[in-house]
Design goal:
120 residues, 3 helices, Pantoate--beta-alanine Ligase, Chain: A,domain 2
Length: 120
């Protein structure tokens, strides 16, 4: 199927795949950071984030891991915390026409920053 939005993009298929990866990773970060969680719901949140990414256009796969060690260390008096960017480790595969890219969202300690980047 021809992508009906392709008329609006003046870029290569690889650039389009990278653009789509950025949209998906930005959505994950800004939609889910701040979600309440603890050890009882962390796996269901990982699955929900992955499932929501997979229904978006051009997503072949999305794997979401939340740092359970960090989660265990930060729980306060009420035994939950909110999801932070430093806890996310996301891999997303985008396929646009013949181009396939692998993009990541993960905390980079040297930068003290949850970085989104093209891995392959």
């Amino acid at each position: 199927m021809q992508d009906p939005a392709s008329l609006y993009f003046k870029c290569s298929d690889r650039e389009r795949a990278i653009f789509e990866a950025g949209i998906k990773l930005g959505t994950i970060y800004h939609q889910y950071v701040g979600a309440p969680l603890n050890l009882s719901n962390v796996e269901s949140l990982e699955k929900a984030i992955s499932a929501s990414a997979k229904v978006q256009p051009f997503v072949e796969d999305a794997v979401v891991k939340i740092d359970k060690d960090l989660l265990s260390k930060k729980q306060g008096i009420y035994k939950y915390i909110t999801l932070g960017g430093e806890m996310l480790n996301v891999t997303i595969i985008i396929k646009y026409n013949a181009e396939r890219i692998k993009a990541r969202l993960r905390y980079v300690p040297e930068m003290d920053y949850p970085l989104m980047y093209v891995e392959e």
